[in-house]
Specification:
By secondary structure, the chain is an alpha/beta fold. The protein has helices at about 35-40, 50-60, 70-85, 95-115, 135-140, 145, 165-170, 195-205, 275-290, 295-315, 340-350, 370-400, and strands at about 15-20, 25, 30-35, 90-95, 120-125, 155-160, 175-180, 185, 190, 210-215, 240, 250-255, 320-325, 330-335, 350, 355, 360-365. About 40% of the residues lie in helices and about 20% in strands.
Length: about 400
């Protein structure tokens, strides 16, 4: 018999009832160190007091009015994001997938209003992840996610990351934009190089395309800057954000320059819940914390402390770990053993992590995790790798004995 909750997740047998900072408390009394952060969502940890207060105050005032009327907190948040990004305007959504879908509409409408209605194709990249709605799935291009949901939405071309020659070869008279994650999360914490991302900017300018960044997972401070692309000195025309923007409250957005958004006029897009007062209160509170003096510098300092220690574990356990990847607190450990083995070993030691493509385990502490929590996480990873190494040695010895 099918369960009441549709069985589309392979969930761990644990339920959490309370969170605080880097820690989650389960209903059975166990306490887990959370190095998943809701998959780059709880960037400010669990139940950050400032965010809790902001949401409680708003919840006592007003939840929803619809977008038939002005939403003052949304106007304030939009203005603050404009002031702290490349963008001139934005649209609020409920999720990252909706932000991607809205951005896809925007880039196609841009070409349409500029007299190029034949331009609808979007160049995307292998091992990307852009969401699970129809067009977002097609942009992702992963056959595992697409199987059984055909026909695939047309207009998405996939090429390897960090290869500008292949990108140029993929452009034709129907190409509208290039969609790329500056740092791929689901794809295995794989980064676009600065040289590559700057070349994409030049290519878009050369061919009249829009450059569309997906910073749903790598944005909102996770790399140590507010936006990942700031590391590369390159600006997009369009950008999708979500996850960390609400620290767990469902909210996303797609941002754009005035030029790129020229076609997004009355009636072209809408959302029932997007930008509602509760979501805007949460996101404004997140920005209050992240834009405070010294916050992002602190993230970079602790990440600089954390990275060499992760790299030392890679060197210490070569039979388990192959490579440390990432920047800031969007980091990954590429494994020699199946990545699920490490995820499970860490879970047994009451630490939460999440797998990714390319046999990677994502290591995503919150951006406010103190050194004590980072040290404890390193100790747990060390112990898990030690146990996996011993297991491999035992299996090797047993195989030799059988031989």
């Amino acid at each position: 018999m099918i369960p009441a909750v549709m069985p589309t997740y392979d969930r761990k047998d644990v339920a959490f009832e309370r969170g605080e900072g880097s820690w989650l408390h389960a209903t059975d009394g166990r306490r887990f160190l959370d190095f998943t952060s809701g998959i780059a969502v709880n960037n400010l940890g669990h139940c950050h007091p400032y965010l809790v207060k902001a949401l409680q105050e708003q919840a006592a005032k007003l939840w929803h009015t619809s977008n038939l009327y002005r939403i003052a907190h949304g106007e304030r948040l939009a203005q603050r994001l404009v002031e702290n990004s490349f963008a001139d305007t934005m649209f609020f959504t409920n999720s990252g997938a909706e932000a991607i879908e809205g951005g896809i509409k925007l880039v196609r409408k841009y070409q349409y209003v500029n007299g190029r209605p034949q331009r609808y194709k979007i160049i995307c990249f292998e091992q990307a992840f852009h969401g699970r709605t129809g067009a977002a799935l097609a942009a992702t291009g992963n056959e595992k996610y697409l199987q059984g949901f055909g026909p695939k939405a047309p207009g998405f071309v996939h090429v390897p990351l960090n290869n500008t020659n292949v990108v140029r070869d993929a452009i034709d008279d129907e190409t509208a934009a290039i969609l790329v994650e500056p740092v791929q999360g689901e794809g295995g914490v794989r980064s676009g190089t600065g040289e590559f991302l700057r070349a994409l900017r030049q290519i878009c300018d050369e061919f009249g395309l829009l450059l569309f960044f997906d910073e749903i997972q790598c944005g909102f401070g996770r790399t140590g800057r507010l936006w990942a692309h700031e590391w590369f000195d390159v600006k997009p025309d369009v950008m999708a954000v979500a996850k960390g923007i609400g620290n767990g409250f469902p909210v996303g957005a797609f941002l754009a320059t005035e030029k790129a958004a020229a076609g997004m006029v009355f009636g072209t897009h809408g959302s029932t819940y997007g930008g509602n007062p509760l979501a805007m209160a949460a996101a404004n509170a997140v920005l209050d914390v992240m834009l405070a003096p010294g916050f992002l510098e602190g993230v970079r300092e602790r990440a600089a402390w954390f990275h060499p220690r992760l790299e030392a574990l890679v060197a210490k356990y070569p039979r388990v770990l192959a490579e440390m990847r990432g920047t800031g607190f969007i980091t990954g450990l590429r494994c020699v053993v199946p990545s699920a083995d490490l995820v499970n070993a860490l879970f047994e030691r009451q630490m939460l992590t999440v797998g990714a493509g390319d046999n990677v385990v994502r290591i995503y502490p919150s951006l406010v995790a103190p050194l004590a929590d980072l040290e404890q996480g390193l100790a747990i990873i060390d112990d898990a790798c030690k146990a996996l190494t011993a297991r491999l040695a035992t299996a090797t010895a047993a195989g030799a004995g059988n031989g």
